[in-house]
Give the backbone structure.
Amino acid sequence: PRSPLDSYRIHVIRGYLWWYFQKFCFRYPKFKAMQKLTATAVKQAKPKAKPYKLADGGGLYLHVKTAGKYWRYKYRFAGKEKLLALGTYPEISLAEARKVHQTARENLADGIDPSSHKKTKKSANQSNSANSFEAVALEWSKTRRKKADSTEKRQRALLEKDLFPFIGSRPIADIDAPELLKTLRKIESRGAIETAHRANRLAGQIFRYAIVTGRSKHNPSIDLKDALTQPIKSHRKSITDPAEVGPLIAAIKNYQATPVVMAALQLSPLFLCRPGELRHLEWTEVNFAETRIEL
């Protein structure tokens, strides 16, 4: 139980606090006028037969309707009465509504129409969304020439897993080399060094498309050429022992891949040509009469 002395001290402290508060409100009367609503009053406000308003001061009020509760700011600009929507309750709390309201009042004091400022900001956000890295990448993917299904699948995975989650929503013109490098470092951190290089090359194609379509002025992927971790190259020895040829042919025969890759592997030991020559082989270079290729 509280002692009589403690009760007396609390009573005195409350008295002093109330006296200072009254003195503050007397010195700053606008403060008292601006602090009318409470969070409890806003929460407990119930719809009635007709819509009604709960004023908070300074033009800010809560419009209570059957459909919900709406924050509104009524003000005058250039001699005309205007209304600014600040959001709905409970998505926007009383404290948040007051912050937005205060910002709008400051704009008004600077000669800026809060409604026009909101529209301009909304338009800028929509423009940034339309020119985001993800939006430009999806547009680029529709305009370019399609590749093999496996390549398309790998590129989609790079975009959806490694790029979009980190820079997809960013305006493509605002992405610089350090930001792109930070994204690629995440790929490197899991040991996927080659994947990081492929992601950088893919991002470079998207940035080049953004440049020619007027959405960006630079390609940060170019600056990362020497910043990424370089993959360790491993050279495979040529088969010189005839006994090892048989297992190689068996491995080629049993290897499962796309029909094009499987055909190329099975033709390699028959033609004994370089991989590049086999990939670019044309029908005009095949001599069916003499069953040979002529490079």
Observations:
- DSSP finds twelve helices and six strands in the chain.
- The longest strand covers residues 80-89.
- The longest helix spans residues 4-27.
